[in-house]
Amino acid sequence: MTRRGYIIGAISLLVAFVVFVIPFLFVAINAMKTAQDASSLDFSLPERWVFWENLVTTVQTRDYALLLAYWNSIVITVCAIALLVVFGAMVGFVIQRRPSRTSRVVYAFILAGLMIPPAVVPTIWVLQGINLFKTLNGMILIQVAYGLGFTVLLYRAFISTIPRELDEAAIIDGAKPWQIFFRVVLPLLKPVTLTIIVVQSITIFNDFTHPLYYLPGRENITVQLTLYNFQSQFVSQMNLLFMNILLITIPPLLVFIFFNRQIVAGMTSGAVKG
Amino acid sequence: MSRVELKDLRKNFGGLEVIKGVDLTVEPGEFCVFVGPSGCGKSTLLRMISGLEEQSSGTIEIGGRDVTRSEPSERGIAMVFQNYALYPHLSVRENIGFGLSLARTPKDEMRRKVETVAETLQLTDYLERKPKALSGGQRQRVAIGRAIVRDPEVFLFDEPLSNLDAALRSQMRIELTELHERLRATMIYVTHDQVEAMTMADKIVVLNGGRIEQVGTPMELYERPATPFVAGFIGSPRMNLFEGDLAREMGCEVYGIRPEHLEVSETEGRWTGRVRHVERLGADTILHLEVEALGPLLARVDGSRTFNPGQTVHATPNTDKEFRY
Q: How many domains is chain B partitioned into structurally?
């Protein structure tokens, strides 16, 4: 590598360190301080290391609200992702493979879903009308609705790279349309499905505003809303807040580390002359 | 082994008629080749027989059964695609057995059938591989295996060799011909390559602009082409065709003479021309001549004779082998 390359590499690493690692270290260090120590919000090492105590207190706060929040968030994320993947891929498949007036109208709606900002009050009104307000099911459907546009867009683009002859070969082999989708097309969508799982699950799991609007109630708490346990206008417990941040950062981090290694491209190589 | 009968088959794309009434009978066990330039409708015709493309009017019968409205899987056909269309996520075994597994064939029977087919095609060692780990020729054999395992009445091939290199192509031509002899199944084969058509076919169907120009055995088409189009299409290098003054002089609209039926001499002959280009193929040499009043003329001469560009030569047509339209 040239000298110039080294210098640019070093600068990039430094920038990445400042932007990504330093905040994380700040959170981690302050999560291990006592309340008094943490309230000064500086970068000094803790006077007394109280990692375990802070962890236990954070988890136990408000009758184990954090554990309930984990459960709720995981249910919402897993269900929403499952629906997004199945519906997104199906819609993308039909729109890409069967161009018609109807599919163009549907596509226009999907693009509109990406462009038009969501309105909170009418959404709540609709949810109340169908008795889904303040329920996890309602929250799941909202997350699906928000994510569907992007998901369909990605799937449609990816499906257009899968040769149509594969569908035709399957038709000749006697496959019904749903068999073509589930046995031929869906397995080939693995790379883009993994991308969608990573991107959407982190978005949904880390969502703060939408659960705040659509999912009020003690028993409906989600992970991001647990931050309010330790922060209010008059009393803030910074050490516990940071511990909470640390704890709720872990699941998305795991998802990312685990799936990022598996995002493989080139699944279709070999389908046609390679 | 079944007869395929097409009756007044037509196809419109929007307002454009691409198949303009095709009547054709492919006899049981015949190797029938559809040949024609790109855009002549040969692939569309094949796809209509397979059921992947719906006809605008007309009927299709396979084995005496009207399949015009049947699903592709119910027509008793199997198809091999130009780019193989193997399922990339499945192993060779699963690729060949895919149709059987859709039909819920018992596991033992499926294994037995797949292995028999793999043996015929020398694919036994590759059964657990994915398509991307195979060479072009092996992929093509898997695609053919997927067709054989269905035990179809009619095999359909859509330019199956066009993605292979020249050496492999001639080898696969022989393999396909042998396969046809062994299976004795009706096969319909689409190609734009007249060499493939001539070497493999029992019957050639020449298509042009959505119509059948001529149907016949390879030698019939070579010796008695019915139209100038067929005359120009079958045979390599292509036949010399002339319109205008020369044709009128000969008492026809189009006059044709094949390059191999021209006698070339350094001293005398009917037409005098200049050698523009010499293609040495070894056994033969193709001369590109520029003849006054005629224009370009191709002649095939013995490879042992030497000609140089710029040389003046004389060409005389063999009068038995002239074509007049």
A: 2
Q: How confident is the model at residue B5 (pLDDT cuts 50, 70, 90)?
A: very high
Mark whether B17 and B149 lie in a shared domain. Answer: yes
Is residue A271 within 8 angstroms of chain B, CB to CB?
yes
pTM for this structure? 0.81
From B188, B216, B232, the end of a domain falls on B232
Portion 71-110 of B in contact with A at CB < 8 A? 71-73, 77-79, 81-89, 98-99, 102-103
A186 close contact with B: CB closer than 8 A = no
- Which residue intervals of A135-271 are DSSP H helices? 136-159, 164-172, 177-179, 186-188, 190-205, 209-214, 238-260
How many C-alpha atoms does B303 have within 13 Å on its Cβ side?
Answer: 5
Task: Tell me the nearest-neighbour CA distance from B182 into chain A, angstroms.
Answer: 23
Is the distance from CB of B320 to CB of B222 less than 8 angstroms? no
- The CATH superfamily of A63-260 is MetI-like (1.10.3720.10)
- What are the phi and psi torsion angles at B2 (to 5°)? -145, 155
Phi and psi torsions of B82, nearest 5°: -60, -45
> Which of A146-155, A191-200, A259-268, B194-203 is the least confident region?
A259-268
Domain that holds residue B289: 239-324
Query: Is the CB of A273 less than 8 angstroms away from the CB of B133?
Result: no
Q: Kindly report the CATH number assigned to the domain that includes residue B140.
A: 3.40.50.300
Provide ipTM, 2 decimals.
0.85
User: SS3 for B92?
Assistant: helix
Which residues in A lie closer than 8 A to residue B150 (C-beta atoms)? 173
Instruction: Write down the pLDDT at residue A1.
Output: 64
